[in-house]
Design goal:
Layout (H helix, E strand, L loop, with lengths): L1 H26 L29 H5 L10 H30 L1 H4 L1 H26 L4 H29 L11 H31 L14 H23 L3 H26 L6 H29 L3
The structure holds protoporphyrin IX containing FE (HEM).
Length: 312
């Protein structure tokens, strides 16, 4: 089942490629580059230039509220994002077929996980359509991001199940490690919600400013930003505690990765704060935070699965 495990990890990585593409769509203001869904300007392959636009193109442009002109760059950024999303859907479908065909070896639990993955990917795609229909409604964008995160959890759960079966006698993981990871996961979810709040405010402020004067955007965000910024110290503290306290060789390297991600996110946050909100940092801050939360979830799930079998 090495190939199946690798393919599941591939899907996990592909989710983040789609998240990165989504982040680039937002930071380049390409969200309404394709004003209709699932087609783009009424066709499956979007126009390359204004001369390729359909006769009734104005009805599509009227849907945009950022600007009402055709911008091939925005259109193609959004279209590539959709293509990657569609590819992800296809990969997940192949995963389900594979799991179903091997269900005697893999068992019903993994079939259920794979079905859940397909449902979440379809729901996420549908939310993508709603975001376009509602002209980039800020709350729907946030929901779209949360479902993408849940989508990343499922392949990790599948890999953990496979590893649990492969490890004879189980890993020697003490149960006491569960609580600090649970605490970190809860703190990260709070931080995610605070970050989403900041992003929603930025969405409104930047749109009102016509996406100009980036250096002023953060100044207009309320107390939520200060809380989000300060909250990361709590996360850093707990991460350092886990790194120092839990020396289990299995988790040593993942703990270093978690610590590295927290530090990088803080550096990205500082860059957003002090370097006039660089556009490139926005999708990276999103990408790294989702990778961090998914990894902590994966470790938590692994500890949960294993500590059932291992008595501390
Ligand atoms: C563990 C540390 C951190 C995590 C997990 C985290 C997570 C997040 C998340 C999930 C978002 C929403 C992103 C989106 O929806 O696109 C966000 C937004 C944001 N965060 Fe953080 N963050 C962290 C630290 C920081 C720090 C230290 C700062 C500032 C010094 C900061 C500044 C911001 C800003 C300005 C936004 C809005 C970004 C935008 O509109 O694109 N973050 N954060």
């Amino acid at each position: 089942m090495v190939g199946y495990r690798k393919y599941t990890i591939f899907i996990f990585c592909f989710v983040f490629l789609v998240v990165l593409a989504g982040g680039i769509v937002r930071t380049t203001q390409s969200g309404m580059g394709c004003p209709d869904w699932p087609k783009c300007f009424g066709s499956w392959i979007p126009p390359l230039s204004a001369s390729d636009l359909p006769a009734d193109f104005e009805k599509y442009l009227r849907k945009q509220d950022i600007d009402h002109t055709f911008n091939a760059f925005h259109t193609w950024i959004e279209y590539i994002n959709r293509l990657l999303g569609a590819l992800l859907g296809l990969f997940v479908l192949i995963h389900l077929v594979w799991t179903f065909m091997k269900r005697k070896t893999l068992g019903n639990t993994l079939v259920i996980h794979s079905i859940a993955m397909l449902i979440v990917v379809l729901y996420t795609a549908w939310l993508g359509k709603v975001v376009v229909d509602e002209n980039l409604a800020v709350v729907k964008i946030s929901l779209h991001m949360i479902t993408a995160l849940i989508l990343a959890f499922i392949p990790l759960m599948i890999v953990n199940q496979l590893d649990k079966r492969a490890s004879v006698g189980g890993l020697a993981i003490s149960k006491e490690i569960f609580l600090p990871y649970l605490g970190l996961f809860v703190l990260l979810i709070v931080q995610l919600l605070l970050g989403i709040g900041v992003r929603q405010e930025i969405d409104v402020i930047s749109k009102a400013a016509g996406y100009l004067n980036r250096e002023t955007w953060l100044q207009s965000v309320g107390a939520r930003f200060i809380v989000h910024r300060s909250f990361s110290w709590l996360i850093l503290l707990l991460t350092v505690f886990i790194l120092i306290k839990h020396k289990n060789p299995y988790f040593r390297s993942i703990n270093k990765v978690i610590f590295g991600l927290v530090c990088t996110l803080m550096i990205f946050g500082i860059m957003l704060n002090y370097l006039d909100f660089p556009a490139i940092v926005q999708p990276l801050h999103l990408l790294f935070s989702l990778i961090l939360i998914a990894l902590v979830f994966g470790v938590l799930h692994k500890v949960f699965l294993t500590s059932i079998r291992v008595k501390s």
